[in-house]
TrEMBL record:
Family under the similarity heading: Belongs to the metallo-dependent hydrolases superfamily. CpsB/CapC family.
Enzyme class: hydrolase
EC annotation from Swiss-Prot or TrEMBL: 3.1.3.48
The organism of origin for this protein: Sphingobacterium lactis
SUPFAM superfamilies: PHP domain-like (SSF89550)
Keyword Glycosyltransferase: no
One Pfam family it belongs to: CpsB_CapC
Coiled coil residues, start to end: none
Name the record gives this protein: protein-tyrosine-phosphatase
InterPro entries documented for this protein: Caps_polysacc_synth_CpsB/CapC, Pol/histidinol_Pase-like
Keywords tagged on the record: Hydrolase
One term of GO molecular function: protein tyrosine phosphatase activity
């Protein structure tokens, strides 16, 4: 009980080192490290700083997932591939031991139907499609999109479900999403109060229910990196998530790695 009471109470003063504390994760499958194409890293130099931060935490492989959001971040497979190429070249030139693949985080908006119907998608390992909703209002087409993705033979993953405030008083919706065949991905910062007390409570409730399939940093900038270091110094995330079927480390086990830096 001490472990859980500490998480909910947030009173623990001890600070432990963050070095290699996320080595158990394997692949960070949700972040915004690709330079200059969304609200994440603005340039290659900043991306390299964030990559070093991930390495310090024990993560040496990632899938970067820039936003695809109509009218805000109008990314395409081509813009994402170009940004990935720039960053990959920098990693190689600096002789940094870090593997980076690319995918995308698709907003369920007016254009997602077109993306799905075209089947011109940036997937994780040619299999997983990361989707998100607005934080302001529920998407009424969530289950329709989940089915459309599955009909193409792909596996949908809903990013950071704990952050959708309109679901906080309706736990059954998370069960419905899982029963529809959609996987769930936790933002690691959600186990702290970084996004607010209600998000933390929702995250810990989902963790206790064993609902998460993946974890991600969702790192955009150095503030996220610093907060992540503080969180993993304080909490044993591997122990916390031991009853959840976290699949990050096996993300590329089934296929050859096609999008390597």
């Amino acid at each position: 009980m001490g472990f859980w009471s500490n998480l909910f109470g947030g009173t623990k003063k001890e600070t432990k080192t963050y070095h290699n504390r996320l080595s158990w994760v394997g692949w960070d499958m949700h972040n915004h490290l690709l330079p200059g194409i969304d609200d994440g890293s603005p340039n290659v130099e900043e991306s390299m700083i964030l990559i070093q931060g991930l390495k310090d935490l024990g993560i040496h492989s990632c899938v970067s997932t820039p936003h695809v959001m109509a009218g805000v971040h109008n990314n395409t497979p081509q813009t994402i591939k170009e940004a990935h190429g720039k960053l990959s070249n920098a990693i190689q030139s600096a002789n940094v031991d870090f593997k980076i693949h690319f995918s995308a985080e698709y907003m369920i908006d007016d254009q997602i139907d077109q993306w799905v119907q075209s089947n011109n998608l940036c997937l994780i390992n040619d299999k997983y499609m990361l989707i998100e909703m607005s934080y302001l209002s529920e998407s009424k087409s969530l289950f329709t999109i989940i089915k459309a993705i599955q009909d193409l033979g792909y596996q949908p993953i809903l990013a950071h479900p704990e952050r959708y405030n309109y679901y906080h008083n309706n736990f059954k919706i998370f069960e419905d999403i899982k029963n529809a065949g959609c996987m769930l991905q936790l933002n690691l910062l959600s186990i702290s109060k970084y996004y607010g007390e209600n998000v933390k409570t929702a995250a810990l409730t989902l963790i206790r229910a064993g609902m998460y399939d993946f974890v991600g940093t969702d790192m955009h900038h150095r503030k996220h990196l610093d907060a992540l270091k503080a969180v993993v110094s304080k909490y044993d995330t591997k122990e916390l998530l031991k009853d959840n079927p976290i699949k990050n480390a096996k993300l590329f086990e089934a296929k050859s790695e096609k999008r390597t830096a």
